[in-house]
């Protein structure tokens, strides 16, 4: 099977702040700049209106959210979420979460952005191999699953976790995901998915109801 993607849309003029305190995604800023995004230091008078992409939730992220800003958190470690937060980032490897012992499915909501731009079916296939999460998001309450944009179930639908969830944090909004974007700019699915995340989180459709705690 061959997966054909359209040419990458121009990102010219879109301003992004990158916050990567642990230097876990050293090539991301350069790859986004190559794609046409304008990388900002986040210290200008309009910084609270700029999209912040972070690799963990910390004081810098909380300040941005407190000013009504929008944040995409690329959570690829347990430390991406504060230790005292209800939401936990947990590794799949070495646990029941890896799915090796029982059927598991990674699913996406195809009815709207951001996955409607890249989804081939409601279940992830080989097209997403370079982006499939190695961590899951636990602690999302059942009543908040309308704000889960992608998730995983395993254990005969006995256990569920999120792979991408949107939440309100004060006057700000956050899109938390464990999808991997280390091959942004080289892998088509990975590239289109992050672009779709940025467009969605920047636009009027981004209206979460779940609350970050």
Can you walk through the features of this model?
It is a single chain. The strands form two sheets. An eight-stranded mixed β-sheet has the order 2-1-3-4-10-9-8-6, with helices on both faces. Strands 5-7 form a two-stranded antiparallel ribbon. By secondary structure, it is of the alpha/beta class. It is built from three helices and ten strands; from the N terminus they run βαββαβββββββα. The mean pLDDT is 91.
Task: Give the SSE map.
Layout lengths: L14 E5 L8 H7 L3 E3 L10 E4 L4 H8 L3 E5 L13 E4 L12 E5 L26 E4 L9 E7 L4 E11 L2 E6 L10 H15 L11
Parallel strand pairs: 1-2, 1-3, 3-4, 4-10
Antiparallel strand pairs: 5-7, 6-8, 8-9, 9-10
Describe, in short, the structure shown.
By secondary structure, the protein is of the alpha/beta class. 14% of the residues lie in helices and 25% in strands. The model has no long low-confidence stretch (mean pLDDT 91).
Task: List its traits.
two-stranded antiparallel sheet; alpha/beta; 10 strands; 213 residues; 8-stranded mixed β-sheet; 14% helix; 3 helices
Widest sheet: strand ordering: 2-1-3-4-10-9-8-6
Q: Which stretches of 5+ consecutive residues score pLDDT under 50?
A: none
Helix content: 10-25%
- Annotation field: number of helices: 3
User: Which structural class do you get from the secondary structure elements?
Assistant: alpha/beta
Shape: globular
Distance between the termini: 42 Å
Instruction: Quote the average pLDDT.
Output: 91
Alpha-carbon Rg, integer: 16 Å
């Amino acid at each position: 099977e061959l997966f054909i993607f359209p040419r990458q849309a121009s990102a010219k003029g879109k301003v992004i702040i990158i916050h990567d305190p642990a230097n876990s995604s050293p090539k991301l800023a350069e790859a986004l700049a190559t794609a046409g995004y304008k990388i900002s230091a986040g210290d200008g008078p309009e910084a609270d209106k700029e999209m912040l992409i972070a690799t963990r939730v910390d004081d810098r992220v909380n300040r941005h959210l407190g000013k009504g800003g929008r944040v995409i958190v690329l959570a690829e470690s347990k430390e991406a979420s504060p230790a005292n937060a209800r939401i936990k980032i947990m590794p799949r490897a070495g646990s029941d979460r890896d799915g090796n012992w029982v059927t598991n499915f990674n699913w996406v909501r195809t009815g709207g952005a951001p996955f409607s731009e890249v989804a081939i079916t409601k279940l992830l296939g080989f097209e997403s191999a370079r982006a499939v999460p190695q961590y899951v998001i636990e602690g999302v309450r059942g009543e908040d699953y309308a704000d889960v944009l992608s998730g995983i179930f395993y254990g005969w639908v006995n256990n569920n976790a999120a792979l991408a969830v949107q939440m309100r944090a004060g006057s700000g909004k956050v899109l938390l995901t464990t999808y991997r974007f280390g091959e942004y700019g080289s892998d088509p699915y990975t590239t289109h998915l992050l672009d779709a995340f940025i467009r969605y989180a920047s636009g009027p459709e981004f209206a979460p109801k779940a609350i970050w705690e």
